[in-house]
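Structure ticket #2291
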Amino acid sequence: MDVEVKIISKTLRKKILSDPVTLFIDIHPDATGQQTSDLKQLWMLYTGQRKQLNDAQNHGKTISRQIGEQKRAGNPVEELKTAMQKQGKILSAIKQQATMTENRIIEFFELEEDAEDPANQYLGLTEGRYYPATTTGSEEIQITLLENEQQDWDDYVAANPAASIYHQSRWKDLIHRTFGHECFYFLARSNAGNIVGILPLIRLKSILFGDFLVSMPYFNYGGAIADHPSIEKKLMQTANAHAAQLGVSHIEYRDDIPRNEFPARSDKVNMILPLPDSHNELWEAFTSKLRAQIRRPQREKPEILSGGKEYLNEFYVVFARNMRDLGTPVYGKSFFGNILRGFPEESRIVIVRMGDQPVSAAFLLGYRGLLEIPWASTIRDVNHLSINMLMYWEVLKIAIDKEYRLFDFGRSSCNSGTFQFKQQWGAKPRQLYWHYWLPQDKKIPSLNPDNPKFNMAINAWKRLPLCITNFLGPLIIRNLP
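Resolution: structure written out below.
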């Protein structure tokens, strides 16, 4: 098909990349929902890559300064030079991916309005995920378990736009050290020896909840990522065969794309808020009711604190108490401490104090252009003051200050109370697909608090003293995904 291409100036290109979705809708008011959705996904990918590129450049500058300092001190610099070479490769891969994504965004504005299916024709998007157009997936690959290739693994994660922070190899040692779980990290290599796909899996085994594998437990993201859908499929087929040999009951793959060959749960969504450039822009986008709810606790003159491991104890006091009140077993403090030590640049704690007491707390993880709030809690005694609204506002301000482009409120069931809470901030649902490998005739498991069979246990847990729930909770929750 011949397509007449419009000439795009540097000025227009810059304008497009600042807010392509709004501009595209203005230019093409009759654009299909699929076109707009695909462009939104590309822009989210691009802003994340730009954030990742900036972080990689800063890290390279840090290594360069260290080399200069060590040379002046007369110390050897060979290890630093090797680190600089590896950082250069990562930076080059990120630049290449960002340029490709940028060009594909621009192509939306180069196409005539009547061009057929521009997303599929020109972008290489498959079920909402970008795969390199040069990859066919037809070559032979070798799939093995990760042994000593952590750096190669993480280099691949850094270069793959579909990767989340939970695909990094650091979680393998962190989870094993914290919970003692077996970890099976599958990687696919091409004939040339390059990694072309990965799949992390964790084995959870207990008398109470059974024996199964998850990618990734405790979090919302995981699953196979690769250079081509067929490689992802091969990774999952290999994992399925491994699961059968182990004799586990099932595998749960936590995906953000559908895979038609697997049974799936799709009752959960992640709530994502695109972030503007300033606090004021976000504030003006709120309803008057939401602004009033944020102002209410400010009259109490609370203290807002943000940092790392120095606030771990205060975070845990609030978190453990709130989890007990909800009837949910609590993670051990060591889990959060290990995350803070293992991901010092990506993790952060926010505390709200009234007087000398912490009353609200959040644990944040940031990666590429997305800041996530996996855990947040507020003591019930101050709920009437809307302290949690202030805490979320402070967290969103931090996200904007740190130049994140997206804020992830976490997962919810559609139209639930938590869904509506997150929706009022302007967050939009992003569908989650939790796929399952199951032995023949087995049903999808339901190991979650919504399962009625846990109602009695939840109600009993709420009445236990904190000292007991804090002791027993980590022993139970370690085996719940």
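Closing remark: The chain has three domains: 10-123, 142-266, 271-429+448-475.
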